[in-house]
């Protein structure tokens, strides 16, 4: 049985990954300061015999001396706000968790001889001038803007990973994750899928920023989790940066129209000012993931949206039932 640490365990990706790791028979220690994560995401596993949850910030200087973390075999460092809504309102915390927090997790990996997967982001490419994006592209990031606290912090986190790999031979792997979704996203998350689906099933206006021509590539959470676990497992991924995302590209307007169709919603699609530095194009090249991990997404956008819509609808019905009780 492997001893695995997951930071950001109460968040969207972290909670899904934690549940999968437990199913696979691992002992899992989940760390989260609950800034954007929710304890309710872990409700079904809180009493699992092989799970321990510790409410703590990975930036804390005390984290390396915590006895439960001794002897760890694997570390998934997912902790960080990931939605612009949240990271822009907590810019300094976002910078800290991706730099100081990353250094702490690398130190933990170094002292235990553990493997570490660091979840970086497609935002490392900024508003790209090269399309689609492959790992060797160095990006076009604005350091003097509202997204920089996330984009640049993730990029510096990658540099920490590089130096710990180069200087100390820490078995680190960096995943650049593209847009991932499922109903596990908070309904107040502010990202495209959670916004569109919740607005559509409530009959509210579906809000598109800009003219909707900007593109994104959406990967269902099960596929992303599988990619992260393959990265941890494959020795060939050590010391590598690998894109994890779905290479099928859609305009934001196409996604809004598809959500409206699948929900059979009468919502209007409305258009609003595009946020500053919002990327116009976003699509991964996943040749490296296919070659080194034997991984590529299996779930289509339509299938993933249908799953997401069904669960959000169920949650909305439960809330409505509770209000009427």
Automatic annotation (TrEMBL):
Key word Transmembrane helix present: yes
Cofactor: NAD(+)
Assigned GO CC terms: cytoplasm
Protein name: NAD-dependent dehydratase
Pfam families with a match to the protein in the record: Epimerase
Gene Ontology biological process: D-xylose metabolic process; UDP-D-xylose biosynthetic process
InterPro entries assigned to the protein according to its UniProt record, in alphabetical order: Epimerase_deHydtase, NAD(P)-bd_dom_sf, UXS-like
CDD domains: UGD_SDR_e (cd05230)
Entry keyword annotation includes Endoplasmic reticulum: no
One GO MF term attached to the UniProt entry: UDP-glucuronate decarboxylase activity
Species of provenance: Paenibacillus tyrfis
Domain of life: Bacteria
Main location: Golgi
PANTHER family in alphabetical order: UDP-GLUCURONIC ACID DECARBOXYLASE 1 (PTHR43078:SF6), UDP-GLUCURONIC ACID DECARBOXYLASE-RELATED (PTHR43078)
């Amino acid at each position: 049985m492997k001893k695995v640490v997951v930071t950001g365990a109460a968040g969207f990706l972290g909670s899904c990954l934690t549940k999968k790791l437990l199913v696979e028979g691992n002992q899992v220690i989940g760390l989260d300061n609950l800034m954007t994560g929710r304890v309710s995401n872990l409700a079904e596993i809180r009493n699992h015999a092989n799970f321990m949850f510790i409410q703590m910030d990975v930036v804390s200087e005390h984290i390396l001396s915590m006895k439960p973390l001794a002897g760890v075999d694997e570390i998934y460092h997912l902790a960080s706000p990931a939605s612009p809504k949240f990271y822009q309102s907590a810019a300094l915390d976002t910078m800290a968790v991706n730099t100081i927090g990353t250094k702490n997790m690398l130190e933990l990996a170094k002292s235990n001889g553990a493997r570490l997967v660091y979840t970086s982001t497609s935002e490392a490419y900024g508003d790209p001038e090269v399309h689609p994006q492959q790992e060797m592209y160095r990006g076009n990031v604005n350091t003097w803007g509202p997204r920089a606290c996330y984009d640049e912090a993730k990029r510096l986190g990658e540099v920490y990973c590089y130096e710990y790999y180069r200087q100390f031979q820490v078995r680190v792997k960096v995943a650049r994750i593209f847009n991932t979704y499922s109903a596990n996203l908070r309904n107040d998350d502010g990202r495209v899928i959670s916004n569109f689906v919740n607005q559509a099933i409530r009959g509210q206006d579906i809000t598109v920023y800009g003219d909707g021509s900007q593109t994104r590539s959406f990967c269902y959470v099960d596929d992303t989790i599988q990619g992260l676990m393959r990265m941890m497992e494959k020795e060939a991924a050590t010391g590598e940066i690998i894109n994890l995302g779905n290479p099928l590209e859609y305009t934001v307007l196409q996604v809004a129209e598809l959500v409206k169709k699948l929900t059979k919603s009468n919502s209007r699609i409305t258009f609003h000012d595009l946020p500053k530095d919002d990327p116009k194009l976003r699509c991964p090249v996943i040749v490296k993931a296919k070659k080194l991990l034997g991984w590529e997404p299996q779930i289509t956008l339509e299938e993933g949206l249908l799953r997401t819509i069904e669960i959000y609808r169920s949650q909305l019905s439960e809330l409505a039932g509770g209000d009427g009780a």
